[in-house]
Amino acid sequence: MDDLDRVSSIGGSQDIHAQLQAAATPLEFQATLETKFQSYDNYCNLFHFILNSDGPVELDMPNSSWAWDVIDEFIYQFNSFCGYRQKVALKGDNPEEIQLLRENPNTWGCYSVLNVLYSLIQRSQISEQLLAIKRGEDPKAYAGEYGQRPLYQMLGYFSIVGLLRVHCLLGDFSLALKTLDDIELNKKSMFARVMAAHFTTYYYVGFSYMMMRRYADAIRMFSHILVYVSRTKNFQKNAQYDSITKKNDQMYALIAICVAFHPTRLDDTIHTALREKYGEQFNRLQRGGPDSLPLFEELFRAACPKFINPTPPDFDNPELNVDPVEHHLRIFMDEVKNNMMSPTVKSYLKLYTTMDLKKLAGFLEVDPEKLRCWLLVNKQRNRQIRWSEGGLLAGDVVHSSDLDYAMEGDLIHVAEAKVGRKLVDWYLRNLARTY
Amino acid sequence: MGAPFDFAPERPEHIESILNGLDRYNPETTAVFQDYVMQQCENQTYDCFANLALLKLYQFNPHLKQDETVTNILVKALTVFPSPDFSLCLSLLPSHTLNPLPTSSHTPAAGDLSEAVQKLNELKNLLEGADYTQFWATLDSDDLYADLVADVSGFEELMRVRIAATVSQAVREVERSILESWLNCQGKEFEHFVGTVCGWNVDGDKIKIPINKDNEAKGTVVRENVKFDQFSRIVRRAYEQPA
């Protein structure tokens, strides 16, 4: 991209260390537009220097989480800049800023941001390295002259996580999940070395699954990381831990939403925490019905990422610059509305083995034909794609509810899948406690 | 194992290579994707992952956007309900497209695309709500719908097949009149569709659907799957600390 080809202003080696530090440091909260532009230029210079010098640059990372911090801050600033620009355009009451933004349409442009991330991935040959690890080979053989250096390797690696995040912010949930094809999600992954990276990855993967209506998979992601955090929080009493507290709460909200769509037995730790945090709200979500709608809306707003519009807004028609969060909320609420009667229907069906449709419609005080629709909807929603192996987008259709039924004319046949008692977890925990 | 979301059996090689490379962001590939959408409309094939890539190009380069291609993509996504494809496409459209339209004054900037998208979204909500009778009635109620689905060959037939598939998952027997209104066809045409296309039995005024995995509704007992690995720590502990 043109922006990266600007003349580098990087001078002596003292300078560069200050720059490396600065790239990983958040802007102050009230930063002006000029500061944001300046910060963008600084990133461009730094990445230009790292990517386009003659051969790999000889730099040591200031500390182990530096690479993550840089990518994280870079995307955060892109995210907040786009959000800010959208707001200025929607309000339309600050002509100077509007003018400034009109004149610089390419600053923090989506193409430059993606270009940086993809270039870092390619330079470091991180995808080739990860594939080698998957095959059980030595990644060094595939790393090339750049990828052998920790600086490039880590920047490349975290750029993959960065892409996941950017795609999700842009509303491209399937591509977000596709991005992680090369990364294996487990505690041995490289991202697990940096708590914030570990955490962020699971949040965005879980959220993307939720928007693809794969609730079982979303729950699996959120549970995994929430359990991990609750087990390790005693070792993490530091600044990094504080910064993830907010995301932690967001994930509890999301898991509450997913469980409402897809009732599941959760890990005990999470279940207890959910009860403490949401209590009555959690019950209302699970009961469904029209009363639950405002609650779904509230939790989604609080827990979704700050979606962005990647292109400069339409300054001439302020009213068109709707906050992208509202757009995604509308799409999501259609899905909620479509499902809201399922819990009620299920709660009745649970009580019978056969039931007459008209009689049930009488209980529910609805038109029998309406009930027939609800039954079809609920049945469709019980079929979900669930991951079993391979890439994150792979999966099999499974029947996800303990309640199954079929209609024969007006007669509903109900069958229940009984779950045998699960003892292993309980047994292991008590064993661990007693000896 | 089911096919991953990004898989499409009929995807040509040149599309596959664009999708896997950085050319998926190159505005010059817009034309290639647009042709591919047209092709999908004509041969009744479908490739959601490629269509999303095109919507993303539009998202990054709004001046390239062709409203007709956008609506064609949405109509194609309707034909695979109740999968989330339609919603995933919506997520990539400009954020004002779902904004309630002003009733009186006409805003040319928001334009006809918003109206078309919201009309189609209405259809999606009816389909996902399994209100098939209302779906057909709505489709018939406005000439705009006829224009929107015109490019997609065999739209009504595709919808019928899809509706029949969702019905067969939940139903063993259904009254003829109800199924007629769900499928929006009667008489000989209805008997042909139900008997030959679906392979169901017409029995007087009842339609019997053969038992399949989904409509048998059999009770099962799920038992816990215990792996030895789960006990590895306990076993190790026993060796480390002899009592």
TrEMBL record, chain A:
<keyword id="KW-0396">Initiation factor</keyword>
<dbReference type="GO" id="GO:0033290">
    <property type="term" value="C:eukaryotic 48S preinitiation complex"/>
</dbReference>
<dbReference type="Pfam" id="PF10255">
    <property type="entry name" value="Paf67"/>
</dbReference>
<dbReference type="GO" id="GO:0005852">
    <property type="term" value="C:eukaryotic translation initiation factor 3 complex"/>
</dbReference>
<dbReference type="GO" id="GO:0016282">
    <property type="term" value="C:eukaryotic 43S preinitiation complex"/>
</dbReference>
<dbReference type="GO" id="GO:0003743">
    <property type="term" value="F:translation initiation factor activity"/>
</dbReference>
<keyword id="KW-0472">Membrane</keyword>
<dbReference type="GO" id="GO:0001732">
    <property type="term" value="P:formation of cytoplasmic translation initiation complex"/>
</dbReference>
<feature type="domain" description="PCI">
    <location>
        <begin position="217"/>
        <end position="411"/>
    </location>
</feature>
<comment type="similarity">
    <text>Belongs to the eIF-3 subunit L family.</text>
</comment>
<dbReference type="InterPro" id="IPR000717">
    <property type="entry name" value="PCI_dom"/>
</dbReference>
<keyword id="KW-0648">Protein biosynthesis</keyword>
<feature type="transmembrane region" description="Helical">
    <location>
        <begin position="190"/>
        <end position="212"/>
    </location>
</feature>
<comment type="subunit">
    <text>Component of the eukaryotic translation initiation factor 3 (eIF-3) complex.</text>
</comment>
<keyword id="KW-0963">Cytoplasm</keyword>
<protein>
    <recommendedName>
        <fullName>Eukaryotic translation initiation factor 3 subunit L</fullName>
    </recommendedName>
</protein>
<comment type="function">
    <text>Component of the eukaryotic translation initiation factor 3 (eIF-3) complex, which is involved in protein synthesis of a specialized repertoire of mRNAs and, together with other initiation factors, stimulates binding of mRNA and methionyl-tRNAi to the 40S ribosome. The eIF-3 complex specifically targets and initiates translation of a subset of mRNAs involved in cell proliferation.</text>
</comment>
<keyword id="KW-1133">Transmembrane helix</keyword>
<dbReference type="InterPro" id="IPR019382">
    <property type="entry name" value="eIF3l"/>
</dbReference>
<feature type="transmembrane region" description="Helical">
    <location>
        <begin position="155"/>
        <end position="178"/>
    </location>
</feature>
<keyword id="KW-0812">Transmembrane</keyword>
TrEMBL record, chain B:
<dbReference type="GO" id="GO:0001732">
    <property type="term" value="P:formation of cytoplasmic translation initiation complex"/>
</dbReference>
<dbReference type="InterPro" id="IPR036388">
    <property type="entry name" value="WH-like_DNA-bd_sf"/>
</dbReference>
<dbReference type="InterPro" id="IPR033464">
    <property type="entry name" value="CSN8_PSD8_EIF3K"/>
</dbReference>
<dbReference type="InterPro" id="IPR000717">
    <property type="entry name" value="PCI_dom"/>
</dbReference>
<comment type="subunit">
    <text>Component of the eukaryotic translation initiation factor 3 (eIF-3) complex.</text>
</comment>
<dbReference type="GO" id="GO:0043022">
    <property type="term" value="F:ribosome binding"/>
</dbReference>
<comment type="similarity">
    <text>Belongs to the eIF-3 subunit K family.</text>
</comment>
<dbReference type="GO" id="GO:0006446">
    <property type="term" value="P:regulation of translational initiation"/>
</dbReference>
<dbReference type="Pfam" id="PF10075">
    <property type="entry name" value="CSN8_PSD8_EIF3K"/>
</dbReference>
<dbReference type="GO" id="GO:0003743">
    <property type="term" value="F:translation initiation factor activity"/>
</dbReference>
<dbReference type="InterPro" id="IPR036390">
    <property type="entry name" value="WH_DNA-bd_sf"/>
</dbReference>
<dbReference type="GO" id="GO:0003723">
    <property type="term" value="F:RNA binding"/>
</dbReference>
<keyword id="KW-0648">Protein biosynthesis</keyword>
<protein>
    <recommendedName>
        <fullName>Eukaryotic translation initiation factor 3 subunit K</fullName>
    </recommendedName>
</protein>
<feature type="domain" description="PCI">
    <location>
        <begin position="46"/>
        <end position="225"/>
    </location>
</feature>
<keyword id="KW-0963">Cytoplasm</keyword>
<dbReference type="GO" id="GO:0033290">
    <property type="term" value="C:eukaryotic 48S preinitiation complex"/>
</dbReference>
<keyword id="KW-0396">Initiation factor</keyword>
<comment type="function">
    <text>Component of the eukaryotic translation initiation factor 3 (eIF-3) complex, which is involved in protein synthesis of a specialized repertoire of mRNAs and, together with other initiation factors, stimulates binding of mRNA and methionyl-tRNAi to the 40S ribosome. The eIF-3 complex specifically targets and initiates translation of a subset of mRNAs involved in cell proliferation.</text>
</comment>
<dbReference type="GO" id="GO:0005852">
    <property type="term" value="C:eukaryotic translation initiation factor 3 complex"/>
</dbReference>
<dbReference type="InterPro" id="IPR009374">
    <property type="entry name" value="eIF3k"/>
</dbReference>
<dbReference type="InterPro" id="IPR016024">
    <property type="entry name" value="ARM-type_fold"/>
</dbReference>
